[in-house]
Design a protein that fits this description.
Elements (H helix, E strand, L loop, with lengths): L5 H7 L26 E7 L3 H4 L3 H11 L4 E7 L3 H10 L17 E5 L6 H11 L14 E5 L15 E3 L3 H14 L5 H8 L5 E2 L4 E5 L5 E6 L8 E2 L25 E4 L1 E2 L9 H5 L4 E2 L2 H15 L3 E5 L9 H12 L5 E3 L7 H10 L7 E6 L3 H7 L5 H13 L4 E8 L6 H22 L4 E8 L16 H14 L5 E5 L2 H11 L5 H10 L13 H10 L4 H5 L14 E2 L4 H13 L15 H4 L16
Parallel strand pairs: 1-2, 1-3, 3-4, 4-5, 9-19, 10-13, 13-14, 15-16, 16-17, 17-18
Antiparallel strand pairs: 5-6, 7-8, 11-12
Length: 617
């Protein structure tokens, strides 16, 4: 199938919203001669261009593959419904941005999965590409359809749709897989999948058998044939890959429109609700001098005037203070802004922000997560009310007008009193602001609905009753009124679906497909989400979303993702679950190893040094 011509696109692009999403040609995009390479990889993000272009994981893989002379990586994103309809009318298949080759022409089509509500977009993209939706329907004539990302830690709801999934970090294992695909080119798809399943970190759903109990719970997930591992252990890289210093620079504004350097991967704080904090263990840091060199190159190669230091907890980076001092000294005269997207709730973090926002005070954002100290102990958010008030005092006194606080509703053991505590705490913070900033002080409160995630201590917990969550949202709307206060919240309708897909088994693949066939796409977008389509899809499959989302699970229940290992042991997660119910906090891992299992799981493969920070070879 030839590449999509510009003449064909010119007929439809004037008819759609933001045609710049679909034309490519961006600064730093890598365009190689299709015939000069042996391996063609399409890197796909199942959401809008503006969202997917901000994804660091996809940018890393794009950079690493295109450094090779024998491979190319090109990009594709989910077209908005107007563009999808126009492409279908014109008979234009989904194509890559770099050379406009149809996705069906690539050797490998890889999806980055970060959010369960993007699952129907995966099917939309496959259908637009003319690629069969089911793994069983794709033989060696079709691209190998793979997926990576945090949603893969429960891969079962896409088990019938994806050929194989990469569990964990893909920087090393992807090249092992691509080498295998090249060596076995021309062989049957079944042979390729069997060989891929023997690569550590690769999960091939078709090679596993699931048995269910009479009550619908999972009885067993086991290999369907010899040589397939019983459990798939995530892949990790001991040392962070080279920083991406020639990122693709778009013509459209992105959700995170700045240069980015990943300074640290992993987190040691141990929040019990946080999947990222569990699955990205252990902590690995980039050396400060490497960060400085990367920022130099980024600014030369992009023209950005803002650089973000990416980490789950930027203020936990061991060299953060000297690093910021060096960055400010070098780049402040050039009017380059340095941003810290993730800060602890403490005065030290405000001091860090002061270093990088000495002249222009943008808002500060902190995440106490819960209003009461009792509930923060349950979720292991080790901050006190006094910590937050001191942080507010430091921020407002140093000249900030705006603070934003993130909370969650529906946390395990939450009561109305815990929710009332959010309002009381907010008013105390705003009162501090008015002492220092008078009428300029502003405080924004955001409350998301908590969704229990696999591979966390709360994976056995039920989703909170959404009627109760709705009532508590109304309570906060009443309490958080007045000058200088604003309150935002998430719609609970999407929460049930997110929890069901995130904690479901492979029977949900039929539900995802049925919902898509009924018209469900871009479910993460409020204006597109149609819950009635999902209710119909669940009903037709004879399944109940509440069975997956709202049911508490016993510690000895076989979970649908039990055969997938993030390296953190089930015993550790269960112990943390019990400590949560007792309201007992667990100290930060930097204060001493709690033997979560991740270092032990990789001890033979990698060498770890003190405090969970890994040593690069």
């Amino acid at each position: 199938m030839p590449a999509v011509t510009w003449e064909r696109l010119e007929r439809i692009l004037p008819t759609v919203e933001k045609p710049g999403r679909y034309v490519g040609g961006e600064w730093n995009a890598v365009v190689k001669d299709w015939g000069d390479v042996d391996m063609h990889v399409a890197l796909c993000y199942p959401d809008l261009y503006e969202i997917g272009m901000s994804n660091m994981g996809l940018a890393i893989l794009y950079d690493l593959i295109n450094r090779r002379t024998d491979m190319l990586a090109e990009r594709a994103y989910a077209p908005w419904p107007d563009m999808a309809a126009a492409m279908r009318r014109a008979g234009i298949p989904l194509y890559s941005l770099e050379t406009r080759h149809p996705l069906a022409e690539f050797d490998v089509v890889g999806f980055t999965l970060q959010y369960e509500l993007n699952y129907t977009n995966v099917l939309e993209m496959l259908d637009l590409a003319g690629i069969p939706l089911h793994s069983a329907e794709r033989d060696e004539r079709w691209p190998l359809v793979i997926a990576g990302g945090s949603s893969n830690y429960n891969p079962e709801p896409l088990a019938d749709l994806i050929d194989l999934l990469v569990i964990g970090e893909g920087e090393e294992v992807l090249f092992e897989l691509l080498g295998l695909v090249h060596r076995l080119r021309g062989r049957g798809r079944a042979d390729l999948l069997r060989a891929a399943a023997r690569i550590p970190g690769i999960y091939v759903p078709s090679l596993y058998r699931v048995v269910y109990n009479l009550d619908g719970t999972v009885a067993e997930v086991s290999p369907a044939e010899p040589g397939v591992p019983e459990r798939v252990l995530k892949r990790i890289v001991a040392c962070l890959p080279p920083a991406v210093t020639r990122p693709v620079v778009p013509y459209l504004e992105l959700v995170h429109d700045r240069a980015v350097v990943e300074i640290q991967r992993g987190c040691t704080e141990g929040c019990r609700f946080c999947q990222a904090g569990m699955i990205y263990r252990p902590v690995r840091e980039r050396r400060p001098e490497e960060v400085m060199d990367a920022v130099d190159e980024l600014l030369r190669n992009t023209g950005y005037d803002e650089v973000g230091l990416l980490s789950l907890a930027s203020s936990d980076y061991s060299q953060i203070e000297p690093l910021l001092e060096a960055l400010v000294a070098r780049y402040a005269p050039q009017h380059v802004a340095i941003s810290l997207p993730s800060l602890r709730v403490d005065a030290f973090s405000v001091g860090l922000a002061q270093k990088v926002q000495a002249t222009r005070k943008a808002g500060l954002t902190f995440a106490p997560e819960a209003g009461s100290e009792r509930l923060r102990a349950v979720i292991n958010k080790n901050i006190t009310e006094e910590d937050l008030l001191q942080t507010a005092e430091a921020a407002y006194s140093l000249g900030w007008d705006r603070i934003k606080l993130y909370f969650m509703l529906g946390l395990p053991t939450e009561t109305d009193e815990d929710v009332e505590a959010i309002a009381r705490l907010a008013k105390r913070v705003l009162a501090i602001g008015r002492q220092h900033r008078r009428g300029r002080a502003q405080l924004s409160i955001s409350a998301a609905t908590f969704v229990p995630k696999p591979h966390t201590p709360f994976q056995w917990m039920p989703l909170a009753d959404l009627d109760v969550v709705d009532r508590r949202q109304r309570l906060l709307r009443e309490r958080l009124r007045g000058r200088g206060l604003s309150f935002s919240w998430t719609a609970p309708q999407t929460t049930l679906l997110e929890a069901a897909l995130g904690r479901g088994d492979r029977r949900l693949a039929a539900v995802v497909e049925a919902a898509w066939r009924k018209g469900a796409v871009f479910d993460a977008w409020a204006e597109q989400f149609r819950p009635e389509l999902w209710r119909q899809a669940f009903a037709e499959a004879g399944l109940d979303p509440h069975f997956y989302a709202s049911r508490p699970r016993n510690l000895d229940e076989v979970l649908p993702w039990a055969h997938i290992s993030a390296g953190v042991s089930v015993e550790f997660l269960a112990a943390e679950y019990e400590r949560a119910l007792r309201g007992e906090p667990t100290p930060d891992c930097r204060d001493g190893c709690h033997r979560c299992g991740v270092l032990q799981a990789f001890a033979a493969e990698r060498k770890a040094v003190a405090k969970g920070v890994w040593e690069c070879p």
